[in-house]
Every structure is written in C-alpha cells, then in structure tokens.
TrEMBL record:
Protein name: Tol-pal system protein YbgF
PROSITE patterns according to UniProt: PROKAR_LIPOPROTEIN, TPR
Stretches for region Disordered: 118-141
HAMAP family: CpoB (MF_02066)
Amino acid sequence: MRIRSERSSVAWTAPLIVLSITIAGGCATKQQVTGLESSMAELRTRNDEIAGEIRSLKDLVQTEHELIMSAKADVLAEISGLREQIRLLENRLTERRDEAAFESGTLVEEGEITMPAPALETGQPSDAVGKGPDGGGGEKVGENRVAYDTAYLDMTRGNYPLAIDGFRSFIEGSGGSQLLDNAQYWIGECYYAQGDLRRAIEEFERVVDNYPEGNKIPSALFKIGKCFHEIGDTDSARQYFQTVINGYPRSDEANLAREYLVELGEPSGRR
C-alpha cells in the first residue's frame, strides 16, 4: 500500500511540475491547462479510491483479528470444560473402585462387619452371629462407618465444608480403620473441588505420609501432580507424575500421568 501511495504522489506531483514549467515559460495554452486540471482531478479521485481501499482492508483485518480472538476464547473455554469433565470422571472412577472394594470386603476392617460363625453340630448358628469380638464392640465401629458415609454423601452433593468436618471426625474416632486413608484423600478432593489447590496438596501429602501402605497412594500422588500443574509449577508436576508412573506403572493414575506428561512436552513417561 505504501508503494501505491508513493506512486500516486509521484503521479500527482508530475502534472504540477509540468504546469508550473509551462506557465513559467509563458507557453501554456488554455487547452493545456484544462488538460492538466483534468488529470489532477482524476488523480484526486484515484487517491480517494486508494484511501477507501486501505480503510476497507484495515476494517477487514480488524474483523479477522476479532474472529480469531473469539475462536481462541471458545477453544480455551472448551478445553476448560473438558478438563472439568475429566476431573469428574476421575472422581467417579475412584468412587466406583471404592464401592467395588466395599462390596468385595477388601476395605472392611476387623470387627466392622463380622462374618457368621460356623454352624454347630446341631445345625444351629452360633449366638455370636452379628456381634463383634466383645459381643457388642461393633456398635461404635458401625457409628463411625455412618459418619464416613454421611461425609461422603455431603461431598458428592457439593457440601464440601460439611464433608471435610465429617471426614476429620471419622479419622479422629476410627483409630484402626482401613478407611482412614480414604477419608484423608477425600478431604484433599474437597479442597481441590473448592479451588484451594495449595491446601489440597497438603491434604494429599498427608495421605502419602500417614498411610504409605494405603490404597490411595497412587491417586494422592497423581492429584498432587495435577494441582502443581494447575498452579503452574510444571517441574513439580512432572516429578509427581513420574513418581506415579515409576511406582504404580499399571494403575489408571499412571495412564493419566503419562497423558499429562505428553501435554507438558514429554513424549511419554519413563518406565
């Protein structure tokens, strides 16, 4: 556009020079002056057309820029929505695993649910059926389990402060329960759901530190890495994702960690 403008300026200036010379020389005829004036008028018209084209191009560029920025915002919003869906699916997956574990009895602590005693030779069941080791000690255990289930229900309904209090009460009142690491993990999830990522990291770290043999270690390590990733601490995120892959290579969390490492620019997690 600058070249065209320069050419127009040259074209505009030339007739003026010729006109000045011819007039100065005293040899300009009326017909020549009229012709030069006509040329100048055409040049003015052409310059106006070029200026209009430039304005149109500027408007087009601005419109295209706005469309691109709008599309970018839509894509980012969609990515954010997909990440939220992934988080919800991860929680559901963890919940389903816990439910399956409860049903199979792998998370039932000693005395929490007592199995029927072997039938006597008479064919009648023992009177001890349904009682704890002390004939009634399972009552408090049952109350604690109700506290856990209530807190879990509060969490699924989005009542995170209530859920946190419930899980803490369960931890304080259930010394030997095999659900302690689960309760601590869900506390971390509650803070994560509220967007308090720093506090969530602290609570997930308690799972790793306090219950090293628990079944929630892979999930806690992965969520710590995810929290660091969302905070923007990519180095720490890589470290925790790699820890999950190295320590629990066949877990669902390891597969998710590999996907995040790819997103962070690494082809795949080291085995």
